[in-house]
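Supplementary Methods, section 5.1.

A reviewer requested that the exact input to the structure prediction be made available. We therefore reproduce it here, unchanged from the version used in the analyses.
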Amino acid sequence: MKQVLFLCLAALLLLPIFSAHSEAAASKGKILVVVSSQDKMELADKSIMDVGFFLNEFAVPTEYLAERGYEIVLATPSGQMPVMDKSSNDKKFFGGDEAARAKAVAFVNGLKPISLQDAIKDGLEQYAAIFVPGGHAPMTDLMQDKDLGTILRYFHEKQKPTAFICHGPSAMLAALPDAAAYRQALVSHDAKGAMAAAKGWIYSGYEMTVLSDAEEWPGEVAKGTEMPFHVEQALQIAGGRMRVDGMYGSHVVHDRELITGQNPSSDLELARELDKTLSAK
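The structure derived from this sequence is encoded token-by-token as follows.
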């Protein structure tokens, strides 16, 4: 009887150790998801457009990866919860499935953001990959954020998977030596200034995709607006080898550590490619 009691006590004492080990085993690694802090963007005519993250581009890849054992860590420049592009909160982006849309909203709302500075301070080595969803918002702050530039250069140096979707690839430009000058040159239609500021980009020569000018244009015409610049051109001027494929269909390009999705329809394909890449490491 004493021996049985001793074994039971020992099992209780070891339970926290086994539990911690199980939790550690359940996590396949952390993925840093970087989202813009902005909710407004100035257009070419100086009018203001509401912007934010695109729900399915954010939620579909992150939910997919979380369900496969990855820990999602949300980071924004401000450290505050990012704003959703209201037009993206629609079941049509989830195959008409209202339950999937609601699940996506709940998943995103359940994340607690940190700042990009905190992500750097806490150690970038803990992250297995980085992912930046779209919406127009990355064209404002992320593409010229110095902290994001530091993060991207680290992931590039370590050749860790780095993924972007739709307008998200504009954030890659944060890795330029003077990203703010490059953006200003684009907005000012200063071709010489843009080409000068584009020198030294770590992704120059990489194959990549992004929302194409052809896909952007119908929305501009319908709304009677014009973007401050176009992301396909912005990446191409900086040295990206653009690979766009048709209109609105899923298309993903993978070159070295860089994985890019062309548009909202590429959400699941991008997630699968990132998961496959991480599993192969």
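The first strand starts at residue 29 and ends at 34. These observations are discussed further in the main text.
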